[in-house]
Amino acid sequence: MPLLAGWADLDERESAAGIEPGHPILIDPEFQIDPVLAGFLARSRFTWLAEGRRAAYAKDYRLLFSFLWQRGKYWHEADPDDLLDWESWRRRGQPGSRIGGSKWQRELAALRLLYEWAEKKGHVARSPVLVHAVRLPDGGTVMAADQAPRDVRCSDVKCVTPRTYRLWLEVGLLGYDISGQPDRSWRGRNDGRNAAFTDLLFSSGLFSLGA
């Protein structure tokens, strides 16, 4: 393709820059790549995240940066007031587009990861994500975001019907297939002991299946 003339060594150049397959790349509305952001995405704690989490964080960055661009600001020019307005738009904006506490908590985590890295590296004077110290029951302290949500669902607990439990027990612990016949590939151990233990938990109301 004529458009790719002179880019035959693109794979080697990306590898030298630390860009691997599936690596997110952010391009601004003027089709420019910020070298600082590229460095963050390629050589920071961001790269330690699972692939799905990296993709989700990259989307969070894109949305905020687009919001800032409409205000005539680049990502490194964001201040706490911008994030307050961003939270208001994300959480109390138009019906149907609002996000809940869990999603906002993830977005805050993504922004803290970026801006605390940028502050440490000297790319921003101060992170726009304001934090405060929270004392733990054991006497220690952790830093929590001032804009941390209060409506986060810690878990999604679902009821387990006897039929679902019995199917899980037979297939997961006793080595039967879905038709109720012994699975010849089963290599489990201590089947009876494990089944007795879960039967006790289920009959006492202490058993649940993770979603």
- Mean pLDDT across the residues is 83
User: Per the principal axes of the C-alpha atoms, what is the gross shape?
Assistant: extended
Strand order of the largest sheet: 1-2
Low-confidence spans: pLDDT under 50, at least 5 residues?
Answer: none
What is the tally of beta strands? 2
Task: Please give the largest β-sheet.
Answer: 2 strands, antiparallel
Helix count, per DSSP? Answer: 7
Please give the radius of gyration in angstroms: 24 Å
Name the beta content range: under 5%
Helix content: 40-55%
Give the CATH class of the largest domain.
Answer: Mainly Alpha
Any overview of this molecule?
It is a single chain. By secondary structure, the chain is mostly helical. Helices cover 45% and strands 5% of the residues. The protein is built from seven helices and two strands. It has a two-stranded antiparallel ribbon with strand order 1-2. Helix 3 (51-70) crosses helix 5 (101-121). 11% of the residues are buried. The mean pLDDT is 83.
State the main characteristics.
single chain; 211 residues; mainly alpha; DNA polymerase, domain 1; 2 domains; 7 helices; 2 strands; extended
